[in-house]
Amino acid sequence: MSMRSLSNITAPLRRGRRREDSRLADHVDRLGEEHPPIPLESVDYTMKKPNLLAERFGSVLAYMTRVELEVERNVLELNILLPDPPEVDRRFYADVWMPQETRHGLILDKMQQLAGIVPHEANLTDVDFKLKLLGALGKVPGVQDISRMLYYLTGLATERSAVLAYNKLHTGLIELGERAIAATVVAPIKRQEPGHFAYYQMAAQELWGQLSGWQRWLTRSLRKRTFEVVGAYNKRQVTEFGDVMDALEVSRGGEADLRDYARQVGRAEYELMFAERHGLRVPDYVFKSLRRAAELAAERKGETWPAAEPAPL
Ligand SMILES: [Fe+2]
Ligand SMILES: [Fe+2]
């Protein structure tokens, strides 16, 4: 973590804007007290069969490690998107979220090295053009709220995906008999993700209640057009996420299974933004981008997704 990006987010303490009494501020305080970064000395990297582990879950570990490490870039993005964040947001990002996630990345990175997994290259510095554009648009009255809303929604889907992935990874490691890393790497990490999810959920609910009709309309349409599967910013990464879903057995059952997974990833934002609408219970834009990941991963292996049904007798 470069000290410059850190100081940008930690420097101004706008105490005047602190919402001491808010639910969100209490949540952030509690997370900070109850979940310090995982102590490095608590981790036991003992692996029984690192080769088997790498073969079975290498794609998952490499992917999650990259996403956790890229939090360093997310901080740069935050500085562009929210140059003047509410104090409670600043406290969450700087004092709780970033120190926890950076530690997740560090621990997973060491573990993947020990298992001989080829790491995915992390982008720590290069901020996407779309974000720079949103940052610039933030000077237009009312638009910064939309950027903030989109950031919370991305956080919501990202943290939910992380919770689901670590739960499945934990189960898979136990099945492989890798008890040490299941208990001292994945279990403590997965305990810290729901608190992040809850933060984004509360923040999104609070802000959604303050948005006007046109802001809500624009947020919904931008979200539909810009939804990305967690941590995938190009075709290669979307394909790699397809591999992750395959390894975690999220997509092997075909469309019905994947729709179920999409529902879990997208439920919170669906209920927030589309609650008044009836009918479809899955935001279709979530399902479509997950399906594309599953298809690309299958295609790279010379297969099709979903796997062809055996012909009926
Ligand atoms: Fe994490
Ligand atoms: Fe997280």
Automatic annotation (TrEMBL):
Renumbered residue ranges of the record's region Disordered: 1-35
Polar residues composition-biased segments: 1-10
Composition bias, Basic and acidic residues: 18-35
Annotated GO MF terms: oxidoreductase activity
Protein name, UniProt field: GTP-binding protein LepA
